[in-house]
Design a protein that fits this description.
Elements: E1 6-9, H1 17-23, E2 28-31, H2 37-46, E3 49-51, H3 56-60, E4 67-69, H4 80-85, E5 89-91, H5 98-113, H6 116-126, E6 151-155, H7 159-172, E7 175-179, H8 185-190, E8 194-195, H9 199-202, E9 208-211, H10 225-230, E10 236-239, H11 248-257, E11 262-265, E12 285-287, H12 298-314, H13 326-353
Parallel strand pairs: 1-2, 1-3, 3-4, 4-5, 6-7, 6-9, 7-8, 9-10, 10-11, 11-12
Length: 354
C-alpha cells in the first residue's frame, strides 16, 4: 500500500477547516504550530506540500517538496524563484476573492466621487453638521459627482478586472478601457470593453484608473510621476493590487499639488504601514487596510481552491492556478533524469555481478 503524502502547515499560518477536510481525503496534514524545532525539521524533511510563508531555508530543508499552496492570490511571502529552481510548483487561489475586490473598487470609487468618506469624517472628528454648501466650489471637497456614464480605465484584466468591468458596464453604464498586454484584445472587445495598446493611451481618457495587476519587477512603480501627471486633474486613482505598483512619493505630490483629484487605497508599499504616514491624513484619500478581498464569504472559498490545486499537483497532474509555470520544465527534467538514472542502475548491477 502506497504511503500517504504529507502537507505541512508552517507557523504562524493556520489552515481553514474546509481546506483541512479536503486535503485529508488524500494526504496527511501536519500543523507545524505544535512542533518544537527538531520535530518541525523532521516534518519539513518529509513534506510533499507546504502552506505558509516559504523562504529559501524552508526549501533547503524540504528535499521531497512538490507543491506550495497559497490561500490567496499574492505570492509576495513565498520564495517563488527558489521554488522554481527546484521544480516545486506554487499554486494559489486566484479567483476566490474576485467579487469581493471588485465590489471594494466600486465602493472606493463611490466614496471618493460622492464625498461619502469626506462627509463622514466631519461628523466623527468634529461632531458637527456641515451643510451641502460645504460640498461646492473648486477646492476639495468641492462638488460630489456621479460615476454613471464616466470612463474607467482598468489596468490588469484578470478575474477581478473582468468582474469590475462587468459591474461598471451593467451597473453604472460606464465606458471601460482596459490595458493588459497579456489579454486577447478581440476577447476584450467581445466583453464590451475597449482594449488599448499602452498605459499612456489609457491614462488621459479616464475619470477613474483602477489597478488590478500583480507586483513584479516589471510592475513595481508602474504608476509614477509621469503616469500621474498624464491623468486628468479631476480623476481618481484606485489601487487594490499591491502598494508597490504605485510610487507613493509621487502619489503624495500628485494629491497635494492637484495632479489628480483623489485616491482610494486598499494597499500600501509597506504593510502594516508606519503611524502618521502622510497619505493617511489627506482629505482626498480614502484608505482601507488591505481588506478588499477579505470578506467572510471568500475565506472558505480561498481555502478550498488552494487545497484542490495542491491535491492536483500531488496526484501528478497539472494545476489550473499555477504561479510559476517555469517550474514544470524543471520538474519534468528532474523526473526524466531520475527515470534514466533508475534505468541505468539495474544494468550497472548486472555488469558488476558478471
Amino acid at each position: 500500500m502506497t504511503a500517504r503524502k504529507t502537507v505541512l502547515v508552517l507557523p504562524p499560518s493556520r489552515l481553514h477547516p474546509d481546506a483541512r477536510v479536503l486535503l485529508e481525503t488524500e494526504v496527511d496534514v501536519v500543523d507545524g504550530a505544535g512542533l518544537d524545532d527538531a520535530r518541525l525539521a523532521a516534518a519539513l524533511s518529509s513534506a510533499r506540500g507546504l502552506v505558509g510563508g516559504i523562504q529559501r531555508a524552508h526549501l533547503d530543508a524540504a528535499p521531497l517538496l512538490e507543491v506550495i499552496g497559497i490561500p490567496g492570490s499574492g505570492s509576495d511571502h513565498v520564495d517563488v524563484a527558489g521554488a522554481t529552481e527546484r521544480g516545486v510548483l506554487v499554486v494559489n487561489a486566484s479567483g476566490g476573492q474576485t467579487a469581493a475586490v471588485a465590489e471594494h473598487a466600486v465602493g472606493l470609487m463611490l466614496s471618493l466621487a460622492k464625498r461619502i468618506a469626506a462627509s463622514d469624517r466631519i461628523f466623527h472628528t468634529e461632531g458637527r453638521f456641515l451643510g451641502r454648501e460645504h460640498f461646492t466650489g473648486d477646492d476639495w471637497p468641492g462638488w460630489p459627482h456621479e460615476i454613471g456614464g464616466k470612463t474607467i480605465g482598468i489596468v490588469g484584466f484578470g478575474f477581478i478586472g473582468r468582474d469590475l468591468a462587468r459591474k461598471c458596464l451593467l451597473g453604472f453604464d460606464m465606458r471601460v478601457l482596459v490595458f493588459d498586454p497579456f489579454f486577447d484584445p478581440d476577447e476584450a472587445t467581445r466583453l464590451g470593453v475597449e482594449p488599448v495598446r499602452t498605459l499612456a493611451e489609457l491614462l488621459p481618457q479616464c475619470d477613474v484608473v483602477s489597478l488590478h495587476l500583480p507586483l513584479s519587477d516589471a510592475t513595481r512603480n508602474l504608476i509614477g510621476e509621469a503616469e500621474l501627471r498624464a491623468m486628468r486633474p479631476t480623476a481618481y486613482l484606485v489601487n487594490l493590487a499591491r502598494g508597490g505598483v504605485v510610487d507613493e512619493d509621487a502619489l503624495l505630490r500628485a494629491l497635494t499639488e492637484g495632479w489628480i483629484s483623489g485616491a482610494g487605497l486598499d494597499v500600501f508599499a509597506e504593510e502594516p504601514g508606519p503611524d502618521g504616514h502622510p497619505l493617511y491624513g489627506l482629505d482626498n484619500v480614502v484608505c482601507t487596510a488591505h481588506i478588499g478581498g477579505w470578506v467572510e464569504e471568500a475565506v472558505p472559498r480561498l481555502a478550498t481552491l488552494m487545497a484542490r490545486e495542491m491535491l492536483t499537483v500531488l496526484r501528478g497532474e497539472r494545476p489550473w492556478r499555477l504561479v510559476n509555470p517555469a517550474a514544470l520544465e524543471v520538474a519534468h527534467q528532474a523526473a526524466l533524469e531520475a527515470a534514466i538514472d533508475g534505468a541505468r542502475r539495474p544494468a550497472a548491477r548486472e555488469h558488476h555481478t558478471a
